[in-house]
């Protein structure tokens, strides 16, 4: 019975870690969206982004993810891959 408790505890711990990683990824995407939107979209967008807005959003997202990976490696934090 003690072995079963340890197995259940380990399984619960793995499940909690996966959920924590999902939450962190969701938070990162939310932050990325907010930061890049505020930086790149001026005024009210039309039905399509302009070429400049598209390039800005792409570059902003890339820089944000690169920096997140650098910080994650530096501080040994899980990062979005």
Automatic annotation (TrEMBL):
Metal-binding found in the keyword field: no
GO BP field: protein transport
Matching Pfam families: zf-Tim10_DDP
Keywords: Chaperone, Disulfide bond, Membrane, Mitochondrion, Mitochondrion inner membrane, Protein transport, Translocation, Transport
UniProt-annotated location(s): Mitochondrion inner membrane
Membrane topology, from the record: Peripheral membrane protein
Family matches, as InterPro entries: Tim10-like, Tim10-like_dom_sf
Stretches assigned to the Tim10-like domain: 16-76
GO cellular component: mitochondrial inner membrane
Signal sequence extent: none
Keyword Transport: yes
Domains as described in the record: The twin CX3C motif contains 4 conserved Cys residues that form 2 disulfide bonds in the mitochondrial intermembrane space.
Role description: Mitochondrial intermembrane chaperone that participates in the import and insertion of some multi-pass transmembrane proteins into the mitochondrial inner membrane. Also required for the transfer of beta-barrel precursors from the TOM complex to the sorting and assembly machinery (SAM complex) of the outer membrane. Acts as a chaperone-like protein that protects the hydrophobic precursors from aggregation and guide them through the mitochondrial intermembrane space.
Subunit annotation: Heterohexamer.
Sequence similarity: Belongs to the small Tim family.
Protein name as annotated: Mitochondrial import inner membrane translocase subunit
Source species of the chain: Urochloa decumbens
